Structure formats: C-alpha cells, structure tokens
Amino acid sequence: MPEYDVDVLVIGTGPGGEGAAMQSVKQGLRTVVVERFNRVGGGCTHWGTIPSKALRFAIYQLLEVNTNRLIREAGYNLELTFPQLRKSAEATIQLQEDMRRGFYDKNGARLVFGSAKFVDPHTVAVTDNRGLVETITAGNIVIATGARPYRPPDIDFTHPRIFDSDTILNLQSTPKTISVYGAGVVGCEYASMFRNLGCKINLVNTRQQLLEFLDDEICDALSYHLRETGCLIRHGEIYEKVEGLSDGVVLHLKSGKKLKTDILLWANGRTGNTDNLGLENVGLTADSRGQLKVDESYRTAAPNIYAVGDVIGYPALASAAYMQGRAAVLHLNGDECASLLAKDIPTGIYTSPEISSIGKTERELTTEGVPYEVGHAQFKSLARAQITGRRVGMLKLLFHRETLAVLGVHCFGVNAAEIVHIGQAIMMQPPPHNTLMYFINTTFNYPTMAEAYRVAALNGYNRLF
Fold first, then answer.
1. How far is CA 312 from CA 116, 150, 258, 298, 321, in A?
2. What are the backbone dihedrals phi and psi of residue 96, each rounded to the nearest 5 degrees, phi first?
3. Are 50 and 156 a contacting pair, CB within 8 Å?
4. Per the confidence metrics, is the pTM higher than 0.85?
C-alpha cells in the first residue's frame, strides 16, 4: 500500500467539511482540512445561514417591539436601518467562527488556508494568498466546497441596485420596494424579511406554486400569509432581461410585464464551487450548475473521492451537509451503513412564520397508494399561542390508517423548526413504537406549543372508523 501524507483530506470548512473532518479525527485518521477563505465556517457561517438568520431575528425583534400594544400605547416607535439590523449578526458570526476554529485545534485536525486543486486522485496542490504551493497526498479526499448564488451572464451584478443572496447582506440602506426573482427557500425567506421591514415586495416565481416540494396545504398556507402581509406573488414568470437604472431596476418578464423597484434580489438557483478544483485531473465532470454526482455513500465516480453538502445539490441544507460529511468518512472507513445517517432530514425554512417538515406529503402518499389519515392542530386553539399572540400556524400529522405509523410531520408557524423534532423522534422508532398512540398516551406540559401533537393526534384518530 502506498504511504500518503494523511488518511483523509477535506476541502472546505463549512458544515459538510466540518462533519467529515470531525468524524475523521474521532476515528483516529490523520486529517488535514483545506479552506480557501481566511476564516473557517464556510458560506454557512459568513454569507448564508448564520448572517441571514441573525438578520431575520433582528427584524423580528423590531417587528415585535413596534407591534406590541403596550409599547405603542406608551408612545414608542423604533426605527432601525437595514445596516443597523445587519450589524447584529456580526457578534454571532464571530462566536460561531471561534467555536468552529476550536473544534479543529482541540481535535488535532490540521488547517491549511489556500485554494485546493487536484493534481491526481490522491494529490492536491494548495496555493496560499502569497502564491506559495503546498502539495498534500491523501488516501481519501472529501470535497465540501459548497455553492454560491447562480449568476446568469446577461445580468450585471456589479450594478449597485442588483443583488444576490450573498451581496444583499451588504445593502447600505432600507429600500422601499424590492423585486425578488426566484421563490425557492432563499427567495421566500428574504421576501418575508423585507416585508417585515415594511418594503413593498414583488415575489416572482418561475413555477406555479411556492416551494412545491412541501405538502400542498403548507404551500397554500405560506402563499396566503405572504399575500395577507402585502407581498405580491407572481407565479409562472420567466425573466427576459434585467435593466439597471440610476433610480431603480426594471425586471422585464417574458409575459410582457415590467416591474420597477428600488432594488432586485436574484434568488434563482445556486452553482457548486467546483470550477477551479482541477476535476479534469481526476476524471470528474460537474454538471451545468457545477454540481457533482455521488452515490448513496457520497462517493463520486473516482472511488477515493467523496463529495458532500451544497456541491452535490439537493437538499442543500447545513444540517444535511454535516451528516453527509460524517456519512462519507464512515463509509471510507468501512462502515456500509453510514448512508443511513443522512436519511429523512427535516426541512427548516425560516419564512415568517417558519416552516418545517419531515417524511411524506399527502401528494406522495396518494400517488403511492398508501392508506393514510390526517390529524390537524391549529395554533390559534393552543393556550400558549394565545398567550404569546403567535396564533398563526398549524401542525399536521399524516399516519397510516391501519398501523397508525406516523408517515409525515408538517408544521407551519412559530418555532416550527423546533417543534418538528418531536415528531421526527417518534417516526424514527422501530414498529410498533412509531405510531400516533405515543402522542395520545403522553402527557405534555400545559400550556406549550408541543401539546399540538396531542391535539393533532386525537383529531386524526377521531377520523378513523
């Protein structure tokens, strides 16, 4: 067997790279991690999840203050600009970065800062910001380079009024109007945030339904509540051109419509960061969006090279990337069951209110011919929601009519991304411990949002005959 410098080389320190690196060192493998940026954490920490969710929380706090009846009666009205709200994320980013840097230091994973490029399937050349090159050989390599916003070549992203999901965080003032092109997760999240700031929103959707991978009832609920807050949704529209002006941006649509707003946020897809990796030197080819194809163990066509996280596309979630990184290293170390780690990953969508789900949708169960039933709990009927004034939302349970096994959990409303994990825990149990009866026979604290499970379970159970 040839002797390599390290057992595992990981490219990228985002969630996928971190998951792979930590799993590798915990298994006693010699590990080195290469990071192109001069700080650890990847896009998740510096441009994506952390700054956008910190911004969302700051906007939500501002909204809570200005809509609180007691505060308004006292004569207070707080006004903050977008840059002021954005600044609140800086402390969180620093905390996250310090914590993640500590993981590598404490666990003995060597960090190398620079741009990685394949020389051959077992060799990577790393070029630092001074132009110095270090060549590292490895038995196995994990690509976790993430993705960036897709930028069509005919759109001028250097224009001061045209943004993508990375550059929007550098917005220097609060716009009065904004067009968001693309109504996927990123587009819907930012549409919610800007609407909560009082901006007039055009949300342009290239499809016929918002977030159509979700359960139809959840899609409908999101559309209704976005419209109720004043967001104008335009379905089935494709852009023809984007015209940047000194006083705004005109979005020309193929349907003949023209939308003029202060700024445009382009949120239509992402591109994998593979263009400078030297994939041709290892016999790999990325698709048109820069993404790599992998098998169920996250192995590419090159047997010793794995890829995880956003660089492989769907589901493109930080939570999924971390587990994929772990699964890849478990597999390369001989664990054939590793891929089970990354199955049944819940969605977490931070619109207002937020959305989270796991398991099958009604559409999928109907197509598969599964006899199922539905249980609902409307948040407006929960004492905790009434006390806190957060009455918008629902919990929906899908379960098998005969075995009562929980098949899907769908939540729309405050803390949905937290609430879903209770249902997830039961779904993952082996039969017969994965049924509706757990919620019916369990005592939940009162008043809580969690008791929605008991309400939904009883609602569904009462439909059986």
1. 18, 15, 35, 9, 10
2. -65, -45
3. no
4. yes
